[in-house]
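User: Hello, beginner here. Can you help me understand these amino acid letters and fold codes? It all follows right here:
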Amino acid sequence: MASVEQRSLTLEPCNCIMAVLPDDGSDRRLMRALRRDKRITRVDAVSVRAVAALADAKTKPGRLPEAVLSRLVTVVVSASQADGVFGYIYDTAQVGRPGGGMVLMSRLRGATSFPLPDGVPDERE
């Protein structure tokens, strides 16, 4: 059996920023802006079912609020960039608008860097 070369991965201190956004294209616009303006490529978006924090005020007693399709965007950035990128995400995704979603951030033990080579094109719409 051939031996496998052991490589040590370097972990850098990082933060994970998560944004729950409406399913209106905000996630794709944010992802494009992060790559274009901040050169951030450690970004992922998935569909989720979400309930607004105050939605229970609009429901009948004893009933759960209706969940709506939303997008969860996860961004990994170095600890030194985290506060600035958090504000950038809030502004760029227009989280402060009614129904605009929410943003939260937590520390990670570490993450590996994965820079894309020069010339990798943006994905098409």
Summary: The CA atoms of residues 19 and 103 lie 4 Å apart.
